[in-house]
Amino acid sequence: MADRYLHLTGTAPGRFLTRRLGLPQPAPLRRWTLETPRLDGPLLHLTAGTSAVAGVAETLSRAGLPLTDRADRPAAIVLDATGVATAAGLGDVHAALHPVVRSLAPGGRIVVLGTVPSPDDHHQAAAQQALEGFVRSLGKEIERGSTVQLVRFPGGASAQAAESTLRFLLSPRSAYVSGQVIELTAAAPDPVADPAAPLAGRTALVTGAARGIGAAVASVLARDGAQVIALDVPGAREELERTADRLGATALPLDITAPDAADRIAAAAPDGLGVLVHNAGITRDRRLANMPADRWASVIEVNLDSVLRTTDELLEAGAIPRGGRIVATASIAGIAGNTGQTNYAAGKAGIIGLVRSLGPRAAADHGVTVNAVAPGFIETKMTAAVPLFIREAGRRMNSLSQGGLPVDVAEAVAWFAQPDSTAVNGQVLRVCGQSLLGA
Ligand SMILES: NC(=O)c1ccc[n+]([C@@H]2O[C@H](COP(=O)([O-])OP(=O)(O)OC[C@H]3O[C@@H](n4cnc5c(N)ncnc54)[C@H](O)[C@@H]3O)[C@@H](O)[C@H]2O)c1
User: Fold this and answer.
1) Does the global pTM surpass 0.85?
2) Scanning 47, 198, 400, 404, which has its CA 20 to 30 A from the CA of 377?
3) How far is ligand 1, taken at its centre, from the CA of residue 307, in Å?
């Protein structure tokens, strides 16, 4: 559904009027296209004090932007704050960014590099945790479609672990991601044979792929070279086949809650599943006092239990080979809660529990990563059905003052799915424009 307000503020009279009324000023976001694959400008690399991570400059030189040492309209600023270990050291963060923050080009990116707060050194932990508050606040004040994130390294990691993450964050693909904290592991990245088609030779299965976010995920994974299997309920067969035909994908009409779902998925990918995306989801909203058991059960079954069951069965059957990627779909409702959504929010919070617990074990036992996206307000049929007032509130109550598009979630899934995203594991990335809900 068209965002008429965004359109209005894109016109001179509309901008004048809405400014006079003190209303939000959403900046049009620039997404990835074949013609505009990169941000428009150079990358400024700054360091607060001394870096504690080896190889940051080399990794940044491979992030897709030319480097500059001048604060003259950079498209991106990376501040290496990995060496900040005391409260006094935070002064270096201010000293580095204060003079240059205004010069960032519209639609720009600020990425702060930090380290995981130490359980053994409360001064280091305080200083590094301080960066989270800093980043989240800067995300709220930066405006003009720019975004701010924090990437944390574990002790002893080399900057190379962050390469795929920095490529994503410093590109138009992360347009609707802001105020996020990503914590890396020290795992060395798997090689990428062809950067233009990083998923070439891999089969990717996406559930709920007939429409909405799932169709966008299928499309972006196909763009990145994957052979896609698009799964949706048999009742959506026609729409599913249309989507699959458009992408050169295979349609698999199947209810994910079927007892033999994992077997049928494994049979559809006899050479193994390189990427498994749990996207199918339903809502059956009612306040708890009015919610019959069947509405509760169907949401938990589709949104959580079938995800747990198929993941376990596919991993145990060895259907997801080493280097495999599992991506599940949570929601900010699972973080912030939502009236009328005790069932939905419980299921989505369950997804967060699943990825945090299974991620490290799946990596150790199977060489597979497990992550989740947590979309905020995304323009789909699901949100078009939301009453007007709540829909408008959902669109504006985030730092970018607009709803996201299905492709924004899809780009985040594609980043998790990259072969060299090995160090990204057990993470929940909110794709919500830094929604105020659950902030
Ligand atoms: N749209 C948003 O703003 C938003 C926000 C947060 C989270 N999400 C989550 O993102 C995912 C996709 O949402 P969407 O907005 O594209 O929804 P959608 O309703 O447009 O699409 C969901 C798809 O899942 C399919 N599906 C439902 N039950 C299934 C089952 N048992 N087996 C197989 N397929 C099934 C549906 O047929 C549909 O094609 C969902 O998990 C949703 O909870 C969406």
Assistant:
1) yes
2) 198
3) 13
